[in-house]
Structure formats: C-alpha cells, structure tokens
Amino acid sequence: MPSSSSSSDNICCGQDPATTTHLEQIREYYGHTLQSSSDLQTNACCCGVDSLPPYVRAVLPLIADEILERFYGCGSPLPPLLEGLTVLDLGCGTGRDCYLAAKLVGEHGLSIGVDMTSEQIAVARSYEAEQATRFGYSRPNTRFLQGYIEDLASLGIEDNSVDVIISNCVINLSPDKERAFAEVYRVLKPGGELYFSDIFADRRLPTCLQADPLLRGECLGGALYTEDFRRLLARVGFADFRSTANSVVSVDNPELAEKVGGIGFNSRTVRAFKLASLEDRCEDYGQVAWYLGSIPGFPHSFDLDDHHCFASNKPLLVCGNTAAMLSETRFAPHFRVEGSRAVHFGLFACGGSGSTGKASGNAGTCAGTNSDDADGGSCC
Ligand SMILES: C[S@@+](CC[C@H](N)C(=O)[O-])C[C@H]1O[C@@H](n2cnc3c(N)ncnc32)[C@H](O)[C@@H]1O
Question: I need a labelling partner for 279 at 20 to 30 A (CA). Which of 18, 24, 37, 87 fits?
C-alpha cells in the first residue's frame, strides 16, 4: 500500500513547457479561483445529488459540509459491491467521493484519493479523523496522496493492487489521458473495475478551445471525444467499456456558449473491467446469464449498463464480453452464467435500447456493434 507522503513535482520534471503551463492553470483554478461549487461558470462540474443511487445518497449526511460545498464532480461514480475493497479516486479534490467510498468499503476496506492540488488535498486530509468518527470507525480508512494521475507509480501505487478505480470530472483535465488510463490499467487487479464520470464531446475540439484556460478549467476544453476515448481505452488494454449514465451538459454561460458553438457535451458514467478475455466486438457464444437478486439494494433487478437490465432470475442471452464481466469479476457470486466460448455463433445479434435504437428479439442484450455509434464502446 502507498505511504501518505507527498509527491507533487515529479511529473513536471522533464515535461514540456506547455504541459507544465496546463497543469499550473488547472492547479490555480482548483486551488484558488474556485472556493465552492457556486463559483463555477457552467454546469459541467456540478452534478446534483438527485442522480445519486440510494445507497450513496444515504451516506451523504455523514459528510462534512465543507467537503460537500467544494464538490466539483459531474456524475456519480460509485458502483455497488465495494465492501472490504481497495478503492482509488483519481483527482479526488477535497474528497467527497473518496469519503463516500470510505463508508461503502467499510472499516476494513481502504479508500485512496490522489490529487495534484495541494489546497484540495489539504482540505481532504483535514477531515480524515472527523470522518472516521462520523462513520463509527476506530481509525481512518482513507489515504490522500498529492500527485499526478498520470504517474501513480511515483506515489507507490503498485501493479495489480486496486479493486475499483473511480474518478469524477478529472480525466478531461489531464494533459496526457493515455498515460492516465495506462496507469489505471496497470494498478487495477485482474477483474478490477474502472468506474468514472466525465465530460465527453461529440467531436474533437479545435486546439484554440482546448487551450482556453476557462473552458479547460470548467472541464469542457479537454472533454473526451467519444470515438477517440474508445480507441484510447483499447490501446491501453480495455477492449470493451459500457455506459451506465449519460446526460446533456448545457453551457449556460453566454460567453462560453458562443465560443463552443454547436459542439455537444455530455456527462457520462462509464465502466470498464481489466479482463484479458474481452474482445473488441460482442461475439455470440450462446451464453446465458441470470441475476440472482443478491446485490445489496438491488433485490429486483440490476443494470450492468444502459442496455443490460437484468431482472432477478430472468435468463438473458449475453455476448462473450458480458458473460466475462459477470463471471470473472466481483459480480460473479451474484450471477449464474451458463455456456462457454467453445462454440461460436458469429457476431452477437445486438439491439435493445442502445444508441442505435434498433430492435432485436433479445431484450436487455447488447446494442451498437457499429463502431460509429455515438454512445461508444464495442457493446454500447
Ligand atoms: C473538477 S475537479 C473534481 C474534483 C473531485 N473529483 C470532485 O468531484 O469534487 C478536478 C480535480 O482534479 C485535479 N486534477 C486535475 N488534473 C490532475 C492531474 N493530472 N493529476 C492529479 N489531479 C488532477 C484537480 O486538482 C481538481 O481537484
């Protein structure tokens, strides 16, 4: 496990001046310009509590007011089944999600937050003892590390050491997203999950908008173009990913709206598993999955993603990737998956409620084998 020592300057050493300026602008924005979420100029980094699932909302009253007031996330990246796990929050800010995770992993789990901005980390650290008391723990189960999400190795975070990585509105700010995702893949345990919320764009932004300090600080300038995100994830090892939530971001500030013109922005929550068995398309092996109704808080149904709603005890035909996600991860005790990859029936007959909106006979199965699908992912 990493120590709680600081490591803030390593990534800047040897970086080109543009990267250094980029990081300094972001640090200035989150360390000084913003003092609370009411200082934000757009609604990109301000997700309301209504979108939180009940098991997360129940923990909110236990979080200190200052932490809640300095929350700048765009979604709710806290999946179920965290008890006893090690969770890593990339760009934790003052720690809202990291503390929510600290409660959800329980006293014997561990919640680690990483952020490069000293002011953010200082606030997060100042509440460690108080939050442990609020949770009824004998000691804090949190660690806040100052450093860069692109260089988790410098913080002592080892290969294959983390169960679940979360992040809320941070990757868009990274000057080297591929390096950040490569670090995610490296530190996740096999079968571990990346579950993050971020801002996505419907096209590549012109460089002048990418370089605009306010657009960048507000999480729009560095928004991930969906198709490049899919390619990038595949390059670092995540062959498939799934969307779990998606909402339109409206740019209400007239000056910024004028600058971005017709570019569409969405806040999306995405899950991706570190599984060597995933393929880049959904393939049909005739496998069937049943949800056993056993995930706490989900007795009747469970949504793996925006087009796989598993009603308890109702069999669904699934592609090979979905079968792997349900049988080779922490979800395995909660699903019965039958069939192997011994016999192949071709590309999975996708449809359902995905971005194509095409109907198929397999309610709840995969959509969008077409890589042009705006919702991205080989099965999304
Ligand atoms: C939009 S805020 C979100 C903070 C937190 N996740 C939340 O939901 O309140 C972005 C945070 O990411 C941090 N950050 C941005 N780029 C980073 C990087 N490359 N490495 C580490 N932290 C970074 C900033 O310091 C800031 O605290």
Answer: 87
Query: How many other β-carbons are positioned within 10 Å of the β-carbon of residue 248?
Result: 8
Are the C-beta atoms of residues 146 and 7 closer than 8 Å to each other? yes
DSSP-derived pairing of the beta strands 335-338 and 287-291: antiparallel
Q: In this structure, what is the dihedral angle of CA atoms 108, 109, 113, 118, given to the nearest 10 degrees?
A: 0
Q: How far apart are CA 375 and CA 380, in angstroms?
A: 6
What residue's CA is closest to ligand 1, atom 11? 91
- Give CA–CA dist 70/235, Å, rounded: 34
Which listed CATH number (2.40.50.140, 3.40.5.100, 3.40.190.10, 3.40.640.10) goes with 279-380? 3.40.5.100
CA of 1 to the centre of ligand 1 (A): 22
Report how far ligand 1's centroid is from the alpha carbon of 37 (Å).
13
> How many CA atoms within 13 Å lie on the side-chain side of 281?
13
pLDDT by residue (tens digit) across 203-229?
Answer: 999 999 999 988 998 899 999 999 999
pLDDT tens for residues 320-376? 999 999 999 999 999 999 999 999 999 998 654 333 233 333 444 433 333 333 333
Domain ranges (residues) in the chain: 17-273, 279-380
Q: pLDDT band at 318, cuts 50/70/90?
A: very high
DSSP conformation class of 71: -
Per residue in 274-315, pLDDT (tens digit) is 999 999 999 999 999 999 999 999 999 999 999 999 999 999
Fold of 17-273: Rossmann fold (3.40.50)
Overall pTM surpassing 0.85 (yes/no): yes
